[in-house]
Amino acid sequence: MGVSIREVAARAGVSVGTVSNVLNRPGSVPQATLERVRAAIADLGYVRNDAARQLRAGRSTTVGLVVLDARNPFFTDVARGADDAAARHGLSVLIGNSDEQPERELRLVSHFEEQRALGLLISPIGDDVARLREIHDRGTPVVLVDRTVEGSGFSSVAVDDIHGGELAARHLLETGRRRLAYIGGPVSLRQVEDRAEGARRAVAAVAGATLETVPVASLTVAEGRAAGERIAAMPAAERPDAVFAANDLIALGVLQALVQAGVSVPDDVALIGYDDIDFASAAAVPLSSIRQPSHRMGETALSILVEEAADPSLEPRVVVFEPELVVRASTAPNAR
Length: 336
Known about the structure:
single chain, alpha/beta, six-stranded mixed beta sheet
């Protein structure tokens, strides 16, 4: 059993209230008393029970962050941005991985509310945010990350994914490609559908261009590899000459499959991803991508959450960043 605050007070010859002041308001304690209490703490090995203190206060110094896939470096960068901003406010960030599973997302949301989290940052799976509305109405601030949900009443920080999809497809078209394929899924993710919509708009503006949608179950390297194997197995005359992947993990899987099958990237198939994770530039064929300001998104979302926790009457804010095209070897112009 741990050392109690009463034992510290007895060792130092002071009241429990004085020990509490040393821990929470050291400037209010005379220097000699401060040193005596700190010596007792060191001698006894006392460790304060911060969880109990936070529960008594009604709110912790922890922020919950629920992401779609903790393995995705994009969300790692978002989390790093949130954590950097949290540190400036004396807060900490705990990450929960929904793994694109609604039931798991629900459990995480409930857990963070039960732990009296200061607030919740979340990239929700779908548009149904009723559960988030419930915890918000009970006093837990909520900020959506990498998503906006129209009419939700929540602040959100996201990227214009429709514009990002247009940038990707337009770039492929400008390199001379005309048979495009879009690989992404599940379709329940708004980001996936918005990127597809942007690609459709770009293709519709170019005569003779086509866009085939290749659905996958999740935004992972394994799903990208499977899709790439299907494309590689197609007759060359029927194979798309360009692929837009909904994220870089899928694109890296596609790249692996095509290269292993002897399909040249970019000569036979140009390839572009989305997110511009670190691995994109380090791939065997450096990967073109649509860059999102992931670290800045995390910082911004955390800052908004802190403001709303301090003043619940604030109006929701919607912050939308612009994506950026990053061109590398995987989309070199088609010379054929």
